[in-house]
Amino acid sequence: MFLTSRYQFVATMGLVLSLTSCADREFVIRPPAPERLPSLEHPIRGIADSVINVPVRVDMSGFLDAVNNPNLIPKKFDHWGSVIKHPKGADYKYYAERDDFSMERSAHSSRSTEPGLSIRDWWKDIDLSGGTLFVSAPLRYKIGARLPSQSTDSAAQCGDGTNWPKHATLDGSVAIGMTPNYSVSGSLRSVTVHSAEPCTLRSPDLDLQQVVNAALSDQVKGGFDSAVSRLNTLSVKSRAEDVWAALRHPIQLEPDTWLLLNPDKVKQTGFSKEGHVVTDTLHITARPVIVHGDEPPASSTALPQLETQASSPDFRGVADVQKAYPEKRSVSEKFHALADIRVDYSTLSQTLSNRLRGRRVENKGHFVTITAAGIFGLGENQVLLRVEFTGDARGYVYLIGKPEFNPMTQAVYLSGLRYDRGTTHLLQTTAPDWFTGAPFQETLAPEIALGVTPMIDRIRDSLRTGLNRTLTPTVSIQGTVTSMQGIAVFADVDALYVRAMSSGTLNVIAGSEP
């Protein structure tokens, strides 16, 4: 009986020793968690200038009323009853009457064939930097003359009797621009008569058509100057201030997400005309960003002075004009918003763990199976990867990598993946050869491709909504977002931030009428 009990004891101890021996041969690795590194600043740099289009309407009806006032610019030019003597020996007379002026989109399409006016007409086709306002009135006229080559009793008439009247236009060209204080600036550029049916009353050294055209122009220049002075009383500053004040405030996109437009400069780019209203398009240069957290404060920047283009010079000749205006530079009308999209490490860890769970890493007949994975912020724009496993070895390892962004795949991956210092020390001092040589990095690196498209799409959709709304009772915005793409990534300690850039347009609608 005693022998039997002794045999059982020896057998039990043998089993325990055998199991202990096996346990000693199993490799367990549990390195200490690395200390966090300092967090680097992640300033928003390289923001592309965006343009916010602001059409501002200017009522020109006061100017039109002035040029159509017969007390300023006569409607009849009667020199038919008294003969005018020209220094070159001709006697002539003329009569003309005009209809009301109207605003034209461009210089009159009728062009005089007179050689002396051909260069001037070419100049009128130039798209002047300050803008040019054209007004035109139909004109009917007749001319009577006795040229030096004719006898005392003979005379010639054009546009009289059955040929009455000859047709022409009385055209005014006004340089129009804006001052730095958002006031309209106008000055008379020229007054010309364009004869659709010119009279051919001329001698070798005298063309009476030019003489009469010049006389008619001279008689209305004073009235034009007076009418143009009405333009200098107009201003768009109050509407510009309303728009600027509305754009200074943050626009809420989501409960904790805000669009800051950051308006910076205002430029005057040109005019368009419709009826008696001229629309001056202002371009507000901005640097929009999307931020997260509590509502940020409104910008304290006051409305800056208007950046106006240089006034067009007086006509100096074709060569000078071509030198001063070598090309017409168009201003980009793109609107861009830069967003740093926050991606929580918990979300990334769950995605990564689901992808890696069950993956086997084999070497020299041994293997481990990944059971979980997590990703954390380490500092200094680096992340820490913790990979848990079981099999011929169990425990976990830490790896460090720097996040990079692939614009083609719109995914985040880790470059320079390597073991941290604590893991490296344990592998060098206690790990068996088969584990040290296991291709952990090679197996993990291709799998760490973290798509962020859903996060970018969510911000894009909220931006589309945010760019189409009423900001104040008098100011609303209408915008489009044609695309939003990730362009960079940065690892902060608490979250991963994917930088995305949107492209589109943004227009302001000022509700006040001119």
Q: Mind explaining what this structure looks like?
A:
32% of the residues are buried. A hairpin with a 2-residue loop joins β12 and β13 (257-260). This protein has helices spanning 2-25, 61-67, 118-124, 208-229, 237-247, 318-324, 345-356, 421-429, 433-436, 440-444, 453-466; strands at residues 27-29, 50-59, 76-85, 91-98, 102-104, 132-146, 156-158, 166-178, 184-195, 202-203, 206-207, 251-254, 257-260, 263-274, 277-286, 289-292, 306-307, 335-344, 360-363, 366-379, 382-391, 393-406, 411-419, 449-451, 469-472, 475-491, 495-510. The protein has a domain at 61-233. It is an alpha+beta fold and 514 residues long.
Notable features of this structure?
514 residues; alpha+beta; seven-stranded antiparallel beta sheet; 27 strands; rod-shaped
Q: Report the average pLDDT across residues.
A: 81
Largest sheet: 7 strands, mixed
Q: How many runs of DSSP E, i.e. beta strands?
A: 27
- State the secondary-structure class: alpha+beta
Number of helices: 11
Shape assignment: rod-shaped
Rounded to the nearest angstrom, the radius of gyration is: 41 Å
How many angstroms does the end-to-end distance come to?
118 Å
The low-pLDDT segments are 1-24, 109-130, 311-331
What does the oligomeric state look like here? single chain
Q: Report strand %.
A: 35-45%
Helix content: 10-25%
